[in-house]
Amino acid sequence: MSSLSVRFFRARQRVASGSGYFQAALFMAVIVAAAPVAWGQWTQVTSGVEYQKFTLSGPNNVFVTRMDRATTSLIIDTLLSNDTIRTGREKVSAMAARAEDMIGYWGQEWGKYRYDVVVAVNGDFFNLTTGVPTGGQLIGGWYAKRYPNVTGGSGFAWTLNRATFIGGCVSHTASKNKVTYPATAQEQYITDVDRARGTNELIIFTPYYDVSTQTDSSGAEVLVQMARPTLLMPTPGYTTGTVRAIYNGAGNTLIPFDHIVLSATGTAAAALLSNVSAGSEVRVSQEITHYQDDCATRNSVDWTKTYASAGGGDVFLKNGAPYDIADTNLNPRTAFAYNSTWIFLVVVDGRAAESIGMNMAQLANFCINYLGAADGINQDGGGSSTMWLDGVVRNHPSDATGERTVSNGIMIVQLVENVARSSAFAAGQNIITTTSATLRRGPGTNWSSSKSFAALSTGRVMTHPLNGVRAKGQCWWKCEFGSDQGWVSENEMGTTTRVDAWNPY
């Protein structure tokens, strides 16, 4: 290994990787033999993050990035192809690039930090046709796709209090997943999140479902501005939102970055409409019921305030010992592993003469003997296995075409304190577009556009606590142009003396 870009809060430097390799023997109890290999040298990527490429007998090339769990400026989050759970696939490198310099909710405040993406790997298995991940996903605190009920597995989790664990069999008890309406003292059970609605159902659509709800006009939809992402807040806990719009018989509602849409049909629509009014409070409670391997005995693991999670496959390592290692095929592998000190992202190349891949037993023993990991879960592998580090794909994906498009990913993020806030405009101020302008669902080019306006279009700045926030290299303002609302880059705005009646919502 020659050199690696070293990052520290977005500074780019170069350092030599140094010397000091030594030979060590690794005995893998579940395979025939293992030869001495070079190991032991970690290169710092940024404060608290280190990288190493292992060259093993087999032969196998293994790429590992580890994160010091005690470094509070580092977090785990997930990536989503094209930022939509509904459909589509995208390369890990493209997902990581879009997440770079975006804002999140870490610190329990939107926009307190910007993301500096240090490393990203591919995540869950997925439907090859639609791109929809097989398991569930939480991204930036939003429960964007439920884990399937009582199917035997879930995935890793990273919480707002910096805990990490690997989930097992789960379900969603109806009475513990609900919307409460304080004004009427009524509650309504949530059927599901981020999927097409059916008959007599209440679905929560989050900003990661798609640009809009993609529904027809047969039901009712309520746009709710949230004080924070929905998270997982079991009763009596909840996240709070305020009703901003009510649509009866009109579907396909736009979903801004800090909103949800309560979408219902039939009897569920009637119940929804009877309990909401403009400006009323809505409370959302969600809970994952966790079981042991038998999918019947309760597990004490607590998913409350999970910030990031992605589904996976075999839990190949548990409490420091190999576990569920029946898969004997040699394949490229991606894994999420950890101990009390480190979190590891692991990628094994395969299907090539220089690296043949690993079976599950070999992956477990590598994580135990080389990394000292205690727990680990296998992510999607094969041609999907990709490690993007500091702007470069480090491994050699096995597809002939190179990096594969996948459904989602896992990333280590360096938090950058967001101290830059513009005061160039003010709520209620008339503005004019100085060039063609894009109205976005949130502050940043990572959020998809909802509409475009030609130069010299007139609008007005709305009230929002994030006005002037910096993201993706620009400052952003929530604006309205007639009936259209969204976020505009300060670089596309100027002032005007035009005065019209103004409604902040």
Q: Can you walk through the features of this model?
A:
This protein is mainly β and 505 residues long. Helices cover 5% and strands 40% of the residues. The strands form eleven sheets. Strands 17-16-23-21-20-22-19-18 form an eight-stranded mixed beta sheet. A hairpin with an 8-residue loop joins β36 and β37. It is globular, with a radius of gyration of 24 Å.
Spatially, the strands of the biggest sheet line up as: 17-16-23-21-20-22-19-18
Q: What is the strand tally?
A: 42
Helix content: under 10%
**What overall geometry do the principal axes of the alpha carbons give?**
globular
Instruction: Report strand %.
Output: 35-45%
Our count of helices gives 3
Q: Structural class per helix/strand content? A: mainly beta
The low-confidence runs, each spanning 5 or more residues with pLDDT under 50, are 1-38, 498-505
Rg computed from alpha carbons, rounded to a whole number of angstroms:
24 Å
Query: How far apart lie the N and C ends?
Result: 55 Å
At a glance:
With 505 residues, this protein is mainly beta.
Q: Which short descriptors sum up this protein?
A:
SH3 type barrels, 8-stranded mixed sheet, 3 helices, mainly beta, 6-stranded antiparallel sheet, 505 residues, disordered C terminus
Give the helix/strand layout.
Elements: E1 3-8, E2 11-16, E3 22-24, E4 37-39, E5 43-46, E6 49-56, E7 60-68, E8 74-80, E9 90-91, H1 92-99, E10 113-122, E11 137-139, E12 142-145, E13 155-159, E14 164-166, E15 170-171, E16 178-181, E17 186-189, E18 192-193, E19 202-205, E20 220-226, E21 239-248, E22 259-264, H2 266-273, E23 281-285, E24 289-290, E25 306-311, E26 317-318, E27 321-322, E28 333-338, E29 342-348, H3 360-369, E30 375-378, E31 387-389, E32 392-393, E33 405-406, E34 408-417, E35 430-433, E36 437-440, E37 449-453, E38 458-461, E39 469-471, E40 474-481, E41 484-489, E42 493-495
Parallel strand pairs: 18-19
Antiparallel strand pairs: 1-2, 3-4, 5-6, 6-7, 7-29, 8-34, 9-33, 10-31, 10-34, 11-12, 11-25, 13-14, 13-25, 15-24, 16-17, 16-23, 19-22, 20-21, 20-22, 21-23, 26-27, 28-29, 28-30, 31-32, 35-38, 35-42, 36-37, 38-40, 39-40, 40-41
